[in-house]
């Protein structure tokens, strides 16, 4: 299509100086997730802004573009002092009232918005979305009581946000 989607993030959100230490620190458990302050769509050929949404913090790894919609996890802003609006510490994630959002690609209108299922709110390491056909899949992970990784997977109807199934499994 002729649309370009993006998020506006704090200048402190991304790593600016690559280094072995920075890479090493990013691949540990419970790392804060880069967030955007808003999400937008623009025309690719001329840069005209079609729409912009600034209702909460958008978890950048969850931004997923489908044929008719863009999907993402959005949460409330909470000043935590350390990361501000640049990154979200998933330890405080459940208190931020996370929600799964679907916006129409061309208009930015909310197609649906639902509370993130409780299992996915436990995510401490990853949280990603993928969309294909009539399905939107969310995957998150956290460390269980044995200090090993547990994965939560949820599948939704992409047109309504209705939860179709959920699964949990240990690594």
3D structure, described in words:
The protein has 171 residues and is mainly beta. It is built from two helices and 14 strands, in the order E-H-E-E-E-E-E-E-E-E-E-H-E-E-E-E. The chain has helices at residues 20-26, 118-121; strands spanning 3-8, 33-36, 38-43, 49-53, 57-59, 64-65, 69-75, 87-88, 99-104, 110-115, 126-132, 135-143, 149-157, 163-170. The longest helix is centred in the N-terminal third of the chain and has 7 residues, at 20-26. The termini are far apart. The model has no long low-confidence stretch (mean pLDDT 86).
Helicity range: under 10%
Class inferred from helices and paired strands = mainly beta
How many strands?
14
Report the β-strand fraction as a percent range: over 45%
Order of helices and strands: EHEEEEEEEEEHEEEE
Low-confidence stretches: none
Radius of gyration: 16 Å
Task: Determine the number of helices (DSSP H or I, runs of at least 4 residues).
Answer: 2
Distance between the termini: 38 Å
Mean pLDDT: 86
Largest sheet: 7 strands, antiparallel
Tertiary shape: globular
């Amino acid at each position: 299509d002729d649309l370009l989607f993006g998020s506006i993030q704090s200048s402190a959100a991304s790593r600016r100086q690559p280094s072995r230490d920075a890479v090493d620190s990013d691949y540990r458990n419970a790392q804060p997730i880069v967030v955007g302050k808003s999400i937008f769509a623009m025309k690719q050929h001329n840069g005209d802004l079609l729409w912009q949404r600034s209702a909460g913090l958008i978890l950048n790894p969850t931004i997923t573009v489908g044929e008719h919609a863009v999907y993402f996890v959005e949460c409330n802003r909470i000043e935590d002092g350390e990361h501000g609006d640049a990154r979200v510490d998933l330890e405080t994630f459940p208190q931020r009232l996370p929600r799964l959002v679907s916006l129409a690609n061309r208009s930015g209108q909310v197609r649906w918005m639902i509370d993130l299922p409780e299992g996915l709110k436990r995510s401490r390491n990853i949280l990603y979305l993928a969309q294909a056909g009539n399905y939107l899949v969310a995957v998150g992970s956290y460390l269980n009581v044995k200090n090993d990784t547990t994965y939560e997977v949820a599948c939704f109807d992409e047109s309504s946000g209705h939860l179709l199934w959920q699964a949990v499994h240990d690594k």
